[in-house]
């Protein structure tokens, strides 16, 4: 067995790509690595099939440490520290933008159920590119996507060319769904709920670290989270956990952890973003942190806003406007407003972000924004649009489902998306296996009342 996401010889390719995106001059280091026989980053998995020779492993370690000393020219406009982030946001809200109404309980149930439904929709096609998702959907009479994916009627040649996510398909195809299967996109929000119940809203990043050590199975976390957990286990503390040999620090991991921080602060994107920052700082920097702040603010706004445009406008106020993530989100939203054919929107987004990994925060935040605008508050249109985008389909489906569900409330989500989930979720987290959306929403609501009382 070869573990993923931790070997220096596999990390170096990802770090070189991240460095180029940061505008750092690293071609001399890249030549040294390739001239020594080093490989590029594995395109999909987190590890190459065979371990590298010891000389390459040591070289990779040295080069990772050398790369860490090269400053990014983008650092001034993409800070990580909270005070600097707030200073970089000229529109940072000084007070809540709205107060929750009497429908808050129903909207919280909708947010939890919507997150689960969007996640399950995207699970079987995670890691499959756009063209594969379309081929599968067309071959089974589900294009444009309007329902769960299915293997029924799928021709063998299509199935062979575009294989399902093997871990997810047994529990997330139309013919297999029986409750909500376990997923990190649901485990992390539940962990955040437990964190707030244990420590309150005054929690710190060290408390997040303790929750991870207490509760997270290492085999069920990936990329930046796995690196940060490794860093904790070798004795590092935040903020070093986020940066030490962690080329995934601007990927999507922190974004998927943030919804609950918004749900406990309805109508208050700034407070939601502050809580999300404390969580994200354990494993991410810059755009990786902004992804979490953006998602938390989306969740906060979804419980009080009248539509996705109002949600997006509030969420963008907590992201530095010159950052790559904010620019990408604005561009994506503008594209979706101007172009009625969502496939053309996706063509432009994929061309614009072709250099990013499929689980980077920037391109996925752009897909979320475009789908929310295109969906215009319709749950089905929103989640199916974002899953058709490819990239991180289950995570993006979860985020868009959360926002759309929060806007509509539980009763506004079509039964086709909620009935097969049977109001329950599977989890290996202590105390959460079999939890119902009703119970999760009630616990979240109790935290809202506690912090506002």
Automatic annotation (TrEMBL):
Residue intervals passing through the bilayer: none
Pfam families: ADP_ribosyl_GH
Superkingdom, taxonomy of origin: Bacteria
Listed name of the protein: ADP-ribosylglycohydrolase family protein
Organism in which the protein naturally occurs: Nocardiopsis mangrovi
């Amino acid at each position: 067995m070869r573990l993923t996401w931790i070997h220096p010889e596999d990390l170096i390719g990802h770090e070189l790509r991240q460095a180029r995106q940061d505008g750092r001059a690293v071609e001399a280091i890249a030549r040294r690595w390739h001239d020594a026989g080093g490989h590029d980053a594995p395109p999909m998995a987190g590890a190459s099939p065979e371990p590298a020779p010891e000389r390459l492993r040591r070289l990779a370690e040295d080069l990772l440490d050398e790369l860490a000393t090269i400053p990014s020219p983008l650092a001034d406009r993409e800070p990580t520290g909270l005070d600097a982030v707030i200073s970089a946001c000229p529109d940072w809200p000084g007070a809540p933008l709205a107060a929750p109404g009497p429908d808050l309980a129903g909207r919280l149930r909708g947010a939890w159920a919507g997150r689960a439904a969007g996640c399950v929709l995207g699970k079987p096609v995670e890691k499959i590119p756009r063209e594969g998702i379309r081929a599968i959907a067309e071959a089974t009479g589900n294009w444009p996507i309007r329902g769960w994916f299915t293997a029924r009627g799928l021709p063998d040649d299509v199935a062979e060319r575009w294989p399902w996510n093997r871990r997810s398909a047994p529990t997330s195809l139309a013919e297999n769904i029986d409750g909500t299967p376990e997923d990190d996109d649901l485990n992390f929000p539940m962990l955040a709920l437990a964190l707030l119940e244990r420590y309150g809203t005054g929690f710190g990043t060290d408390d997040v670290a303790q929750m991870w050590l207490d509760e997270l199975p290492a085999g069920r976390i990936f990329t930046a989270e796995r690196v940060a957990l490794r860093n904790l286990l070798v004795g590092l503390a935040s903020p070093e956990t986020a940066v030490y040999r962690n080329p995934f620090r601007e990927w999507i991991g922190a974004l998927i952890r943030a919804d609950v921080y918004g749900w406990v602060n309805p109508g208050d994107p700034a407070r939601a973003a502050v809580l999300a920052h404390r969580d994200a700082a354990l494993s991410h920097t810059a755009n990786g942190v902004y992804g979490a702040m953006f998602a938390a603010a989306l969740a906060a706004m979804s419980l009080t806003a009248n539509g996705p445009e109002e949600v997006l406008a509030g969420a963008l106020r907590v992201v530095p406007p010159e950052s790559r993530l904010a620019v990408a989100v604005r561009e994506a939203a503008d594209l979706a407003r101007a172009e009625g054919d969502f496939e053309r929107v996706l063509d432009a987004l994929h061309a614009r972000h072709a250099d990013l990994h499929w689980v980077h925060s920037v391109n996925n935040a752009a897909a979320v924004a475009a789908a929310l605008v295109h969906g215009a508050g319709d749950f089905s249109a929103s989640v199916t649009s974002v899953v058709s985008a490819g990239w991180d389909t289950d995570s993006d489906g979860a985020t868009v489902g959360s926002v759309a569900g929060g806007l509509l409330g539980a009763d506004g989500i079509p039964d086709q998306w909620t009935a097969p989930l049977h109001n329950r979720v599977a989890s290996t987290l202590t105390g959460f296996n079999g939890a119902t959306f009703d119970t999760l929403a009630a616990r979240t609501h109790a935290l809202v009342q506690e912090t506002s009382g």
